[in-house]
Amino acid sequence: MEALTKKLLSLCLVGLCILGLYYFYYVVWFVPERIRRKLRMQGIGGPKPSFPYGNISEMKRLTIMEKNKKDAEAMKGTIKHDYRSAVFPYYEKWRKEFGPVFAYRMGKVVIVHVSEAEVLKEICLCVSLELGKGTYLKKTHEPLFGQGILKSNGPAWLHQRKLIAPQFFLDKVKGMVDLMVDSTNPLLKSWERKIEQNGGMTDIKIDDDLRTYSADVISLACFGSSYVEGKEIFMKLRVLQKIISKPNMLAEITGLRYLPTRRNREAWRLNREIHTLILKIVKQKGVQERNLLSTILQNASMENMGTKEAEKFIVDNCKSIFFAGHESTAVTATWCLMLLGMYPEWQKRVRAEVHDVCGGKAPDAKSIQKMKTLTMVIQEALRLYPPGAIVLREALQEIKLGSIIVPKGVNVCAPVATLHYDPNIWGKDVNEFNPERFANGLIGACRPPHMYLPFGAGARTCLGQNFAMMELKIVLSTIISKFKFSLSTNYRHSPVLRLIVEPEYGVNLVLEKA
Ligand code: HEM
C-alpha cells in the first residue's frame, strides 16, 4: 500500500513537472512566436529568436564586440557624437537587414522597433490609455519604481499624473528659481577651492558634483526642509540604480522575482532602507509644509487608502520623482559642459550672453527667459545625447498605429537616438554639434517637429520639462559665468546605457576662473 502511494505521488510529481514545463514552453515560446507570426503576416520581419531568451544573446554579443572597438577609439581620444552603433549596435544591424520596422524578442516580450515617420507620428500623438508603459523589465525595475507614475498604467497612472503634473507647471517652477540658484553654491565653492589649491587651474571629474546639485534641488522641491534626509535617499537610489541596470532575465522570463540571489537581497535591503527614510520624513513633517510630498500625502489620506496601500503610494511616487527628477537633468548638464568644453566658440557666446542678460547678478526667472543661445545649446545637447534613448510603449489592447496592427502585449519602441541622427530630418550636418539649427525654434530645426523626442512623447511625455530646463539654465549659466573650461585629455568618450545614456567614465574638465 505504502509503495503504491509512493508510486502515485511520484507519478503526480512527474505529471506536475511536465505540466510546468509545458506551461513554461507555452508562455515563453509558443505565445510570443504566435505574435511574431501575426506581425510577419503584416510584412514585419526580424532576427530569429532562440529559446528561451529570444534575441538577447545576439544583443549581448554585438554589444561586447562594439564595446571593444569603442574602448580602443576612446583610448585614441576619438570623439564621435553619434553613439548609436556603440550603445545599440544590434538596432543598427537589424535596421540595415530588415528595414525601419522590425520585430525582435527580449525573453517572452515581442518588441516592434519603429523608425518610420508615419507610424512614429501615431505613437507620438497617441494619448489613448490603451498604449501604456511597457512591461518589459518591469520586474527588474520594480525595486526602483514600484507602481509609481513612471511605470503604472490606466486609471492608476492617470490619477498620479493629475496629482503630480501641476506641481511642475511653469508658474510653480518659477517660484523655485531661488532654491535652484542657492543650490549652486556648494558646487561653485568646491570648484573655486580646487582651482586655488592647484595654482589657478584644475582637472576635475564633474559628474558627481552635478548629481549632488540636482539631488539638492529636487530634495528641496519635494521635501522642503527635510532635504538632508532626501539626499540620503538619493545616495541609496543611485546604488539601487546600478544594481538593477542589468536586466534580471530569470525574473523576467519565469516571474520568479523573489529568489534570494545576492543581487535581489542587496536591492531589497536598499529598498527597505529607502522606504523607512521616506516614511520617517512623512511622520516628522506630515503636511506642515507645501511641497510635493505634502500634496501626495494629502491625496493619500483623502483617498481613504489602507495604511499599507497609502504608504506604498507615497513611497513609490517619491522614488519615481527622485529618480526621474535628478538623474536625467544631471546627466544632461554633464553632456552640455562636455560639449561646451569641446567647442570654445560656443562657450564664449554663452558666457557673453549670460553677462549681457544677468549683468553680474545671479540669474532670475526674467533673465533666464532671455538666454536664447544657452537654450539652443541645451536643445542641441539633448539632440546629440538624449538621456532617454528609446521611448517604449506597450499595446494594452490590440491597437492600430499607422499601417500596423499591434497585437495586445506587444511593445513598440521609438528609437529616439535614431531619429535625432536622421539626416532627412536634420540635414547633412546631423552628426555635428550645431546649436545654430535651433535659432528659429524647433520648427526651424526639425521637420517634422515631433521627431525631436528628448522628453518623450504623447500622454506620457515628461512632466518635469519646465523644471529641468530651468534647472539646467541656472546651473549652466552660473558655471559659465564663473569659470572657463576645456575638455581634459583625461576624458574618455564612451556613452553607455545605464537606464539612461551617460558618460561611462564621467567627464573631466580643465577649469580656471573666468
Ligand atoms: C533633462 C532632463 C530630463 C529629461 C531628458 C527627461 C526625459 C524624460 C523622458 C524621455 C520621459 C519618458 C517619456 C515617455 O515615455 O514618452 C520622462 C518621463 C517623466 N519625467 Fe522626465 N526628463 C527630465 C527631467 C525630469 C524632471 C526634472 C522631472 C521631475 C521633476 C521629471 C519627471 C518625469 C516623470 C514623472 C515622468 C513620467 C511621466 C508619465 O509617465 O506620466 N523629468 N522624462
Automatic annotation (TrEMBL):
Give UniProt keywords alphabetically.
Heme, Iron, Membrane, Metal-binding, Monooxygenase, Oxidoreductase, Transmembrane, Transmembrane helix
Q: Is the keyword Transmembrane assigned to this protein?
A: yes
Q: What is this protein called?
A: Cytochrome P450 714B3
Question: What does the sequence similarity comment in the record state about its family?
Answer: Belongs to the cytochrome P450 family.
Task: Tell me the residue numbers annotated for binding heme.
Answer: C462
Cofactor(s) for this protein? heme
Which GO terms are recorded in the biological process aspect for this UniProt protein? lipid metabolic process
**Which GO terms fall under molecular function for this chain's record?**
heme binding; iron ion binding; monooxygenase activity; oxidoreductase activity, acting on paired donors, with incorporation or reduction of molecular oxygen
> Any signal peptide, and if so, which residues?
none
Q: Which InterPro entries match?
A: Cyt_P450 (IPR001128), Cyt_P450_CS (IPR017972), Cyt_P450_E_grp-I (IPR002401), Cyt_P450_sf (IPR036396), Cytochrome_P450_Monooxygen (IPR050665)
Q: Does the keyword Ribonucleoprotein apply?
A: no
Q: What is its main location?
A: membrane
What is the protein's species of origin? Rhynchospora pubera
Report the transmembrane regions from the record.
6-31
Gene Ontology, cellular component aspect:
membrane
Among CDD domains, the record links this protein to: CYP714
Its annotated compartments are:
Membrane
